[in-house]
Design goal:
Blueprint (H helix, E strand, L loop, with lengths): L1 H23 L12 E7 L2 E6 L3 H14 L3 E8 L2 E7 L5 E8 L5 E7 L5 H17 L5
Antiparallel strand pairs: 1-2, 2-6, 3-4, 4-5, 5-6
Helix pairs in contact: 1-3, 2-3
Length: 140
Amino acid sequence: MKSGFGLAKLGILSLLLAVSVSLTGCGGAKKQPIGGASQEKYLFGTYSALFACGMREMDKAVRETCSKAKLTLLKRTNNLNECYYLYRDINDVKLHVTILEQKDNTVKIKLKVGSTGDKESCQMILIEIDSHLRSQGALL
């Protein structure tokens, strides 16, 4: 049973790695810095970070990153200064994403992969979100 769960996490990680390689144009799996993020933290399976951008830009970056990774959107809610997304991959591993607008014109993003969390997968997703924000000139 545990090996199936590990394979499911590997499914999300491999999808994100494929997107990362296709976007960067290089074949290496070198870890890129998440330059637009600050206050990165991994606690109890949830990875969080702050980005100096607007809610609209972050919303677009999350949706496009997950679309490129071929994740299926199960749920999306938008309440003024908070958005929540629930995605799943082909192995039925769920990705929970919450973005919160802060009072200091930043956006806090929280990611959790699976029921217990996966730090590496969250970092890969954040790298892609950061890349998208940079390509759109959305980082303040």
